Amino acid sequence: DDGYRLWMRYPDRTIAPDAVTVRGRSAMLDAAAAELRRGLPAGFGPVLLATATDPAVQALRLPSEGPEGYVVRRATVDGRPTLVVTGDSERGVLYGAFALLRQVAVNGAAAPINLRSRPRIALRVLDHWDNLDGVVERGYAGKSLWDWWTLPDYKDPRYTDYARANAAIGINGAVLNNVNAKAESLTAPYIAKAAALADIFRPYGIKVYLSARFSAPIELGGLKTADPRDPAVARWWRAKADEIYRAIPDFGGFLVKANSEGQPGPRDYGATHADGANMLAAAVKPHGGIVMWRAFVYADTDPDDRAKQAYDEFKPLDGRFADNVVVQVKNGAIDFQPREPFHPLFGAMPKTPLMIEFQITKEYLGFATHLAYLAPLFAETLDAETGTAPGATVARVVDGSLEGHTLTGMAGVANIGDSRDWTGSPFNQANWYAFGRLAWDPGLTPEAIAREWTAQTFGRDPEVMRTVTAMLMRSREAVVDYTGALGLAHLMATGHHYGPGPWVSELKRPEWNPVYYHRADRNGIGFDRTRTGSNAVAQYAPALAAKLADPRTTPEGELLWFHHLSWDYRLASGQTLWETLARRYDRGVATVAAMRREWEGLRGQVDPQRWAKTATFLAVQEREARWWRDASLAYWMSVNRRPLPAGMAPPAHDLDWYKQQRFPFAPGNPQ
Ligand code: BDP
Fold first, then answer.
1. Is the CB of 365 under 6 A from ligand 1?
2. C-alpha angle 355-497-558 in degrees, rounded to nearest 5
3. Which of 153, 203, 293, 395 gives a 20 to 30 Å CA spacing to 386?
4. 423 CA distance to ligand 1 centroid (A)?
């Protein structure tokens, strides 16, 4: 079993096709019915699929779950006991069908069925960092799924399976190309290719979006400028939008990375991010499109604190964006680290819809090889309290309920490629799955999602369920522990971001270097973001800022993110900072070793192919967790000249040995 089927591992013997009835005809209803015929087990009773406008459904007086929600309920229809799958829209019916399949996979066909749900977030989007040459930036699961060469003519059946997998978890949008965009993706041939994908995705409720290169009017239109205030530029974008909508009538809109890491943008002309976003928004507005404008600005100036840039640039623009612009903010202020405090912008732009951006691909958490279940990372950010009002959490900012926004969204940088198991390893599928489920309902717990995923992926055997969910639930914290705990971040080696490099100090810009982030010296370690340092804490709401200004009231997991402390600083446990940090490395390695043993215990209970790949990857992870531990400890000891805490094993090699390791084949940033 190569894992191709993801969470859609349907039984061999399936329901009699005529047991599934559809009222009304459309590609979407047909897709829903086909999925049930494919996935419900033999012997399953009659099922009716119909929207709430159908007279038979109307007569049942079921509750409404809104434009995308569903109700699945037993009822008597035409005198027959029937399972009714319905919603206000066809999309609701589609999601209801997948919810039914999930329910059956997780609880068995005999369990009572009574489901209703609606998404809390409107845009549930995968961002593909796929380049037109097929390379996926930060992608570790093979090449791009999109075969730009054979599109639009050849429609690989895999595109349909991609759409099914997404519809199953409620994802309703896909940005096809990298945020580091090429203007070429907006040319007629590429629009036709995108349109072919849009046609395939449409019955599954998935809209297509494109990343737009801000300077495209110059590169494609021959204009002298891309200044958003220039009428000729605005005209060019309007015409471009019209052209796209002729090919893709339900095109979602644009995603833009501007003035960040060398990308062009409105700042090149002295205009603001709002000027740029609003100009593009006006172009798609007549067609109902939107603009997702990224707040990940990372400009060439020497910042006193990189973590402060996005806030400094965007906070003053609150309320200045058009109503079809949503500002896309990464979960944390640096860059998808194993742990980051939530991004201060979530508490600072009440008049602007903010969508959250997570990274599903594990750029900083061991690529596709390390096992790290990211739902706890996602949930940690979503559950964080912004301190702006009682009960104000990041989730309530993102779902719009706190500040009354209806344009709401969650984006995940996809971990998908053309490898047979889609994500480079069976367990990485869980991160795609968890992202979709949390975008639907940010209130779901990581544990509940882990159980669902495990049942659908490895079956309902209680021992398998117990073992796999326990592995998942500890895995992310293990990565934090063995890469650098207590709020340390950005400690990785250069370029590829795989493996340790806390000593790196020679790169051109200060904030490219790990030493910029940890600031370790003989006496202490950590980045002072209080008033005596960069004062980044002031970007949080006053009550929270006050808490974070004091190490005693800062969450331990974020301690060195906000404070520079003596190695001898005593934590709540009474242990010193140095001892705690050091022992966390051991804890991380021990957790991986334990996961490996537990997986070993499932030999024979999981199919051999997925079992073996996972076993091998866990062995790699254990080896590399030790490498992180040893290299990091060797470096910290060279700085603080302290002995290891009692009983801890010394690093296997000296520091120079770790510094000399090269990883020429680790996939890097092709930009
Ligand atoms: C960083 C990646 C880089 C991306 C950038 C972004 O290292 O490849 O282009 O984020 O989000 O995480 O734009």
1. no
2. 60
3. 293
4. 19
For residue 100, give its domain range.
17-117
CA 329 to centroid of ligand 1, rounded, Å: 13
CA–CA separation, 596 vs 598, rounded Å?
5
What is the pLDDT at residue 664? Answer: 63
Tell me the pLDDT tens digit for each residue of 415-455: 999 999 999 999 999 999 999 999 999 999 999 999 999 99
Residues 183 and 283 in one domain: yes
CA dihedral 451, 456, 457, 459 (to 10 degrees): 90
Asked if residue 302 and residue 390 are part of one domain, the reply reads yes
Task: Indicate whether residue 262 lines ligand 1 (CB < 6 A).
Answer: no
- Report how far ligand 1's centroid is from the alpha carbon of 128 (Å): 12
Query: Does any domain span residue 556?
Result: no
Across 191-218, average pLDDT: 98
311 lines ligand 1 (CB under 6 A): no
Tokens 């806390």 belong to residue: 502
Residue 624 maps to a domain: yes
Regarding whether 312 and 163 lie in a shared domain, the answer is yes
Q: Does ligand 1 lie within 6 Å of residue 432's CB atom? A: no
Give the per-residue pLDDT at 128.
98
Tell whether ipTM is more than 0.95.
yes
Is the pLDDT confidence value at 669 over 70? no
Q: Both 30 and 179 in a single domain? A: no
Percentage of the residues of the chain whose pLDDT score is greater than 90: 97
- Rounded Cα–Cα distance for residues 469 and 471 (Å): 5
Q: What is the mean pLDDT of residues 263-271?
A: 98
Looking at the fold, whether 570 and 646 belong to one and the same domain comes out as yes
Q: What pLDDT score does 605 carry?
A: 97
**Which pLDDT band holds residue 298 (cuts at 50, 70, 90)?**
confident
What string of DSSP letters covers 114-164? EEEE--S-SEEEEEP-B-TTSPBTT--SSS-S--TTTTTT---HHHHHHHH
Q: How many domains does the chain have?
A: 3
Q: Could you tell me the CATH number of the domain that includes residue 630? A: 3.90.1330.10
The Å distance, Cα 258 to ligand 1 centre, comes to: 12
Q: Is 257 in the pocket of ligand 1 (CB under 6 A)?
A: yes
| Last-in-domain residue among 117, 151, 170 | 117
Catalytic residues: 261, 335, 363
For residue 357, the cross-strand partners are: 330, 411
For residues 42 and 168, membership in a common domain is answered with no
Q: Whose CA is nearest to atom 13 of ligand 1?
A: 179
Structure tokens, 254: 């644009």
Residue 471 lies in a domain: no
Looking at the structure, do residues 33 and 180 belong to the same domain, yes or no? no
Computed over every residue of the chain, the mean pLDDT equals 97
Alpha-helical runs (H) found in 183-272? 188-201, 216-219, 231-247
Domain match, 206 and 113 both:
no
Going by alpha carbons, the residue nearest to atom 9 of ligand 1 is: 180
Residue 465 lies in a domain: no
Q: pLDDT per residue over 510-552, tens digit each? A: 999 999 999 999 999 999 999 999 999 999 999 999 999 999 9
- Residue 666 is predicted with a pLDDT of 76
